[in-house]
Give the backbone structure.
Amino acid sequence: MRMIRRYISFLAAVALTLGMCCAPVYGFYYDDPGYDDFGYDSYDYDDYGYDSYSAGSYDRVYDMYGLFSADERSSLDAMCRQYGADCGLDLIIVTAGSTGGKSDMEYADDFYDAHEFGYEGETGVLLLIDMGERQIWISTAGAAIDQFTEERIDSLVDEIAGELADGDYYEGCETFIQHSCRYFTTEVSAGEVRRARGVPLGMICVSLAAAMAIAAGVLYALYRSYVGTMTADHLTYLQENTLSVTRSGDRFLRTTMAVHRLDTANRSRPGGMGGGPGGGVHTSGGGSTHGGGGGSF
Amino acid sequence: MVQIYKCPSCGANMTFDAQSQQLSCPYCGRKMPISEYKEPKQKEPEQKEPEQKEPEQPAHEEQAASGTFKMFHCPSCGAELLTDEYTTATFCNYCGSSALIESRLEGEDAPELVIPFQITKEKAREAYLSWAKRGLLTPPGFVSRATVEKISGLYVPFWLYDYNVQAFIEADCTRTRVQRTKNEEIIYTDHFDVQREVHATYEKVPADASEKMNDALMDKLEPFSYDKLTPFKMEYLSGFFAEKYNYTSGQLRERADARVKEYGARLAMDSIRGYEMITPVREDVNLQLTRTRYAMLPVWMLNYRYMGKDYMFTMNGQTGKIIGEIPVSKGKVAAYFVLITALIFGLAMAFFYFFL
């Protein structure tokens, strides 16, 4: 009877431990439902007139590449202010032909910091359309970092890039504005995880393999401690002070060379965290923290 | 012929006591150092002497006749002692006296050295019980259900070999240095041909001369501490089983040679310092055997049965090192494996989740 109870409590402990470590694993792979579930109703804007709530008189659209006409520019600008005021998120759009040697991430972050965008200090999202590389980058700051999870950024990038690829630059920016607001104002559910905390599948496999190897090693050591091991070695029966080196010779033969080129572009940024080419949460050269992700079109 | 040590005070059978390292009488408690033991004077009438001489001759003939078991008689009670060809110390089945077969322990067959038992029988039994009780990997109920047969102390015959060793090694060795410029990293690898020769002396490398005792097991019981090695006296064997060597020193020589050759090669390899990678090209070890000695080394042994299978527990009678066999419960191993894996994996995931 006692034996059975011991076994049951033992198995319960095992099940509990397994359950504990399954929860975070499951959480990493919860799929984002997509913006369709959020409902279309609240953000139906037909007129893009200025709003009394648009705090701050700086531009929201920086069309350095010249993608848009003057009318389009002012429309987008107004939209950014309107939506931005409503959901408390500073929305910025930047187009450029080249980023002058910087990566898109650097350029977007620096641009954002330099202009000191952001509601309540920093909260905002910047869309950079790099026409030279045909890539976009979304940079988040402040409260937007947490709200824009890896999955959400990926979705947003896909949605925008889809339109840009078709040449619908205006529509792409609209999508950016509308969906950013939606993502920002929707609760991050328990299943979703901020990008910086995601654990790549590779690490999970490695951890599991390492855990199994350690367990096997521990059990083997335990068995050997029971059964006993051979301890006599090459020094056991060696008489003290009888060991001497009687002949010794080191003759130089040749030298071989191996040359590695150092790639400066691949060096990691200081203070960088998180995995993957997307960038995750990082500290920009100016010292401020940004989140973000990007893709090509 | 067959020697039994009698207590001068009460006449009972004296045995060697590991605790006091003396001959001790279990009945009256008298203890005496081995060197003091003297044969009690025989009050027998002279007619018996010719009788005593006769059994000695068959004892020597026994060597020529192969496969015959010599019959001995217990000097205490006269019963027949059951022995095989190699037994040198045993117990009388009837009166329990510890009987030593002198003729197999003298002359050419006399051991040179012995390490007396340092661990008493009680300590050995306790060690066995606490070892068996640990129960981490053994099936539940193992301790209660395993039948403990008698724990016996026995002296195992060993040949101890002394060598002079010359070991030579030639190896390809490399060292690297790194040079960094703005765009490049250059790694230079220097290759050397390295030679070393070392001389060393090895003493008392043991090889067990008993066919019955498993060689690998005996090896694992090493090392014995030779500072307790003392010139052989038959008195040490009283109270224990003992065996004569099954193999001569010549027959075991190959095994000892192989062992010491490996040791020599290792010494030569270890003498190479200061390189990152060492690849041996040539190894040559020469041995000169300088001495062989015949020694009796103490072992506590216990055979037990669990679920119809036999297992052995052995303990170095001097150092107390335990080498044993246990039945392993597959269920327990599997459960522990899963538990430890889950624990470490869970910790790793928690670490990633909260700190990265």
